[in-house]
Structures are given as C-alpha cells and as structure tokens.
Write a structure and sequence with these properties.
Rossmann fold; Methyltransf_25; binds S-adenosylmethionine; seven-stranded mixed beta sheet; single chain; SAM-dependent_MTases_sf; 9 helices; two-stranded antiparallel sheet; about 325 residues; Methyltransferase domain-containing protein; alpha/beta
Length: about 325
Amino acid sequence: MDRPTAGDKATLICPSYVDGTDTDYYTLFGLEAIMERLDGGIRYDLGRDFLGSARLNLQHYLWKDTLNYDIHPSIPVAHDHLRIADVGTGTGIFLLGLCRRLPPSTSFQGLDVSADQFPNAEWTPANVSFRKVDAMQDPPADLQGKFDIVHLRLFTCVVENDDPLPILSHCLSLLKPGGYLQWDEYDSGTTGVIGSTPGAPTQLLNSMLQAMGSNRPLSFPDNSWIPRLDDLFRAQGMQSVQKISTRPPPELLKAYTEMLLVAHLEHASLHDADGASVGGDRLRKLIGQGAEEMKKGGAFNHMLQVVVGRKPCVFSEGSGEKSS
Ligand SMILES: C[S@@+](CC[C@H](N)C(=O)[O-])C[C@H]1O[C@@H](n2cnc3c(N)ncnc32)[C@H](O)[C@@H]1O
C-alpha cells in the first residue's frame, strides 16, 4: 500500500462509542490536515517535547528490563576502541546507558534527523557525540564504513511505503566490513490486547490498536516488513542473521500500556498543533477510556523483536553473501 495522501480516505472504521456513529478514522481525527502539513516537511508522528522524551526514556528502561541486554550478547563488545552508532537516537538514552558499561576507549555517535531531543552537550561524556543525519539518505562520507556496531530501534514511524531498505542500506553503509547491525522493533504481527482476568475489558484498547497500531493511517499504513526483517537482512548479504522475539513479563504490561498511552497523547497534541483540536479532543477522550480499561486489567501486549546480522568482510550490497 502506498503512503496515504490527503485525498486518500482510510478504510479503517473507528468504533461508534466515540460519538455514537461509525465514521472513518481520517475524518474523525482530522488527519487530512496533519497529512498536508507532513507532506510539506520531514514526517514524524510522535512528539519531540519533554513528554515525548520522557516516554522514550521510560520505554528504553522497559525494553532493557525485559530483554536483559542493550547490545545483543552475540555481538562482541570486549574490544578496545570500538565505534558504535545509534541511528534515530532520539534522546540518546541507549548510548548514555551503554557508555557507562563499555571501556572509555569506545566511541559512541548518536545520529538523528532532528537534534530536538539530544542530551545537553556539556553533560555528555567526552566519548559520546550527537549529530544531525537523515537515515533516508546516504550517510555523510566521513561516517561511511566507520562503525563496528550500528544499532537502531523503533523505526516503525519512520519507514515509508512498507520498505525499510533505504534505512537498511544507510546502516550497512555506516558499518565497517565485519561490523554488526542490531535493529529492534515491536513485532506488529504479534501485537494484541489481553486482560489480566477473563472478564477484564479490552474493547477500547483493541480499537485504539486497530486505529493507531498495525494499520496506522497517518504515515505508516503497513508494517509487514517487521516480521520479514531477518529475511531482508539476508537478502542484503548479511551473515549470521538471527531474530529474537521476547514477550514482556505480565508484571510489566501495565507499565508498557501506560507508556504507549502517552504516545497516543503525543498524537493528540499533533492534532492541536495543526489546528485540529476537535480531533485531538476526541482522541484524548478515547485515550481516557482506554486508561479506564487498563485500570480494570486490560493491557497492550507487544512482542519485542531484535534482529542481528553481520556485514561480510567482503561486501557487495544486495548481492548475497560473499565471504566472512
Ligand atoms: C520512536 S523514536 C525512537 C528513538 C530511539 N531510537 C529510542 O529507541 O529511544 C524514532 C526516532 O527516529 C528519528 N527519525 C525520524 N526520521 C528520521 C530520519 N529520516 N533519519 C534519522 N532519524 C529519524 C526521530 O527523530 C526519533 O528520534
């Protein structure tokens, strides 16, 4: 499915409990106005203010607590002078945690198309730096082939047209021959809503998922690439590819759900910023109703997917494995 345009009405039906009538999602939340704005600039559907940053930081710690690692244990880090890049780094929280446990000779570079969420440079360790770089383009020449490890996480809202290849190619270009790529996403194929008891209400959270999750109408209408990401790594010639799926433990599901409700609130603020506050208000009402369900035991239930692969020592992009 192509990226929707302002004239492309959704087929998604929003639940009638919001205003008593079934209506399409675009009209209900005033998304046409937002899409027009986004068409005029670099698209990003989440907030970059302190609320968005706090959510990213909370999400990082939930992921870390669930996975029990930041860099997957199959990737060797016991070397001096490693160079590590985090693509789409956001607040840089991934690198800020990593730099405390790896040797001071390691250098860390956070890259993002926006500097809005970068940490304060004066309080950032000397071996950590941040830079504005667009992952949809070729990396700047001075970064190409320079990194032992490239990490990226949560690019669902960045990938266009269900095609992560431009970003995958960007990451491969950053890597040294023999370097490792780790790409972390929520596995859209296994996303669902569950209740803590058989009677716990889940209808509204389910409706939110339908509208905002696997079929996000705003800018990421199709996420079918996520479960295929390991195959895409192989098709690009990467070696030692593995896909690891991890389900958060039940005791963390409420915290995950609260964090994801904040992401929906960020969407609502985008509507306000676009002068579509009626849509924002409706979305906030839906979020409030979802939060009430959560108090009664409803929760989002996402698998965390980590894909790891190694760039061959002799590499020719897209032409399969050459040699190790
Ligand atoms: C959902 S956030 C994830 C942030 C971080 N990876 C984390 O897990 O905390 C997505 C990030 O991708 C960045 N981004 C969006 N479009 C981008 C692009 N074209 N190139 C590089 N980064 C981009 C956003 O600015 C944002 O920081």
